[in-house]
Here is the input.
Amino acid sequence: MAVDSIPQDQPAPPKVALINDPRARALFFQVLVLGSILIFGGIIINNTMDNLASQGIASGFGFLNTTAGFAIGYSPFLEYSEENTYGYALLVGLLNTLLVAFIGVVFATVIGFIMGVARLSKNWLISTLALIYIEMMRNVPLLLQIFVWYFGVLRALPGPRQSVDLAGTIFVNNRGMFVPAPVFEAGFGLVTAAFIIAIVGIVVLAKWAKQRMELTGQPFPVFWTSLGLIIVLPLLAAAIMGFPMGWDYAELQGFNFQGGAELPPELVSLALALSTYTGAFIAEIVRAGIQSVSHGQTEAAYALGVKPGVTLRLVVIPQALRVIIPPLTSQYLNLTKNSSLAAAIAYPDIILVFAGTVLMQTGQAVEIIAIAMGFYLLVSLIISMFMNWYNKKMALVER
Amino acid sequence: MKKTITAFAAATAAALVTTAIVAPASAGPVLDRVKAKGFIQCGVSQGVPGFSNPDEKGAWSGLDVDVCRATAAALFGDASKVKYTPLSSKERFTALQSGEIDMLSRNTTWTLVRDTALGMNFAGVAYYDGQGFMVRKSLGVKTALELDGASVCTNLGTTTELNLSDYFRANGMKFKGVFFEKADEVVAAYDAGRCDVYTTDQSALAAQRTKMKNPAEHQVLPEIISKEPLGPVVPHADDQWFDLVKWSLNVMIEAEELGLSSANIDQMKAESKNPGIRRMVGVEGDTGKNLGVDNNWSYNIIKQVGNYGEVFERHLGENTPVGLPRGLNKLWSKGGILYAPPVR
Ligand SMILES: N[C@@H](CCC(=O)N[C@@H](CS)C(=O)NCC(=O)O)C(=O)O
Here is the structure.
């Protein structure tokens, strides 16, 4: 680049021998490194294949089409049975991982922000409690916390026949939490449509309100209007269609509750453990972020007569976020990867189902571990990409 | 960007190195490797009383452990030349395939897939077992056919997991499976009421029951839903090592048949005129030469480890906490199916 921009009318740089040309040398060494890495990699792959063949260990990806023959205890999104393939079992495990990671990220963020702010509270009790929470969570190994939650939850809850019964609709016992599942009838499409329209409306409204604010300085109550829109529109649609929705209640049959939607104790305790653990790290990040905004900023805003709430929202938080987001991203990545501890308490994530049972039944460790690694890599890259995009959006725009 | 690409390539290469190292470099090297080390690295369970269980001092004992000790007695003339690697049901085959252990002796069922696609050989059967169900007595269940809709706890990556599905499907019943990596967690979760049923090999049910809070609260249902021939496993591609493990186990069984035990073997060696016994104590024949070990190999096994019956009574019999009957594992001549090919 620097070379391209040399003005043409200057005298050409003196000719140097290729060996002394820094660009040629850089290129040479890069090709050398890349070449040797490729050759090295090739030898290793070749060697692995040879060794597998000489030991008579099966290889290849054909097994993904073989009938699985084993059960998976929890599959909320896909209908799975023993007759499905290993490939389909992989999909079930993968979705279960995404589910627990998603729940974990949401709750960890909420816990983290609350605890981070509490840590800075002027109230001694609140800030000390937050401190104790953070230090305890950060300093006890996660696997131990998962076991404590799991066996704690199990021991605390009664058996299915003595379930805790919340108004005859929600049941809690040591087999999980059973809630009514919504059943959508014909005509529910309109309600969904209304919901989507409401969301689009909110986006447009927010854009418009922002523009108007910048032009005229007139604020508009975007939040309350949005809340109204998102509740009223779908409700209206539902009323027009005669409330096309029912509930499937869980019922005690034989050993356990049937019907409804189920949250098994494995999912609940894993999500709890992941979010309380990561929440403690996020709290520290939030605290550091808020403290990084110099007090002068707040004072300047007050001096201009900006109200404290607005100061926090428009002055402190946007600047704190710039500091918070990058480390927050790595916490989200950690949480996702930590969710692979699921296997210890029988939550059927990708590691338990695929790198566990399927690996044991097929013995194809190399392929299976490669797929599992590829999956975590992909998820991590997607999270990073999203957070980078958000970070750019939040970064200070210098005018 | 350039930096990221190089870093990524390096990381990939590193990952591949690890997988490549996982496979041993040359074919048929297990026996050589064992001889060079001077001890056998034996894969066992993480603690199943009677089969492979560590005591407070970390010394391992049990039927599966004794199969490894017998092999060490045959090869080194010293049953104590064994080191143990505790493995979960999920880890065990990778450990064998990767050469981390030389043999696996850990209540492992002989199946076609394991014997072929997983690159392993089963060197015989040390215990004939079958899968059973355990429930709380308070459930009032009399047979496994009443288990429709039950929650079932067991170990993942086992034949147990597959038989369970087969059995419920074949009988048109449903169940909720809860599969753990480690046996201790299975027992703890079942004990904490997470599951109505705990299923695994019947022998292991008896063994694990001794770990429960109140063993008397539980009962084993009458159904045996599968065949579980449990035996020692070696990697493919080392026939000599395979032979040695196989015949070490056979000698224990043959010794019981011949009435040879650790207690009487020295006397028999001095006095017996029975050619079968004379071969077993190493004064006639050259079985050792054929296996590539000292001709005293079978004498050492019996002297240091004992015959099958002794080993069974020591770890699993009626006088132990596990308290299993011999059942199928009696000699073929006594109404069981235990049968060793001729040691000659
Ligand atoms: N025989 C079956 C099951 C073997 C198995 O893993 N059994 C469990 C049930 S107790 C066990 O031994 N666990 C001991 C451990 O994980 O340490 C197989 O080979 O797949």
Notes: Confidence is low (pLDDT under 50) at residues 1-27 of chain B. Residues 32 and 321 of chain B are 39 Å apart (CA to CA). Chain B touches chain A through 60 residues (CB under 8 Å). The longest strand of chain B covers residues 131-136.
